[in-house]
């Protein structure tokens, strides 16, 4: 079959790498793609907000199946438009994508279906928000309702900081995403990401991962899209995984069905593992970036077959096999990220880095110009390694990174530190 993948990040390179390996693929297309994706797919220059041009490209290239990477097109209803045009696609409808597109929707949904999450209030004007704030303990979490690329969250340590965050939201700091504000109880614990495929009725757990959101070593500095990850998340014991499926994922799938908006696609639950058990921080309705770069190298089964089964609603007959090894990825970003960056610096040494045992390199913001691979975005490369322990995978990833010659880039040198500390404690006890 002919497959079209939409997106251009490290997540999409990992998806392209896994889909291209499927015996079901005749030809893989990707729009817009990047320099790494171009090695396994034919890239098309398409604007992902222009649904009509995507549908035209599907007809022109006889595409049988579309896989959507990022949340933007899902929240904008691309799946609805593709379905209406008779094109099979992987991802939730616009209605179901509200689980990521509106924090208020998700909070109300959790209340209705008794899904554990932080206590909250929803507000559409500053006066009522501040009145609610007065009665709450600190720290307190202030969130813009809509999509804000991970930047719409403030954990306020004082009432004054919280009030300023409320004012900033209503003053338009996050555009339309801040027309409504959610105020949430602060949850204490360790974070983990949990992924499950859902076909509307049935949910199949994929795997877990842990991300590193801060830009600098020791988890300090500005928040980013993610600077590195590993899978599985050691905090997630078999018992906790079962609780997440029973208390969070399955009630969500059943609740969405009950609301008449069945969820089909991948549910990515951002979890806080609190003393009282796992609680939902937020839902995403797509694969994580960089989590996908550590999930897929661990998957032994055919990813494309699983995505098709999800879209076809026959996931309950499906089983997936995983490698026992762990995977770790280190994100390399252009200097200045997550602030202002310079595009166009040359990256050398990619072939030497890719030859390191157990290493796969997934491109994000890269572009080929002549015979050069150049940086073309904030997050640029994902250096992924497989190992028998997080420490071993981390070692291999940094050996590969040291083969690279890219003065315009940087990375954290401590990805996996929390898991490695846990491994050391395990060996000592
Ligand atoms: P979100 O965009 O909702 O995932 O929030 C971004 C980050 O803010 C999360 O990954 C957490 O680190 C943190 N966060 C969000 N909500 C809470 C909460 N209620 N309690 C503690 N931390 C939170
Ligand atoms: N790694 C965070 C995300 O994909 O949203």
Sum this structure up briefly.
The chain is α+β, with helices and mostly antiparallel strands and 429 residues long. It contains 14 helices and 23 strands.
Classify the fold: give the CATH topology of the largest domain: D-amino Acid Aminotransferase, Chain A, domain 1
The description of the largest β-sheet is: 9 strands, antiparallel
Ligands and ions found? adenosine monophosphate, glycine
**Cα end-to-end separation:** 52 Å
Please describe what this structure looks like:
This protein is of the alpha+beta class and 429 residues long. It has four domains: 2-93, Rossmann fold, CATH 3.40.50; 125-179, Dna Ligase, domain 1 (2-Layer Sandwich); 190-317, D-amino Acid Aminotransferase, Chain A, domain 1 (2-Layer Sandwich), CATH 3.30.470; 326-428, Alpha-Beta Complex (Glycinamide Ribonucleotide Synthetase, Chain A, domain 4), CATH 3.90.600.10. The chain is built from 14 helices and 23 strands. The strands form five sheets. Strands 10, 11, 14, 15, 16, 17, 19, 22 and 23 form a nine-stranded antiparallel beta sheet that branches. α7 (126-134) packs antiparallel against α8 (159-170). The longest helix has 21 residues, at 238-258. The protein is globular. The model has no long low-confidence stretch (mean pLDDT 95). Glycine (GLY) binds at residues 150, 211, 226, 284, 288-289, 291.
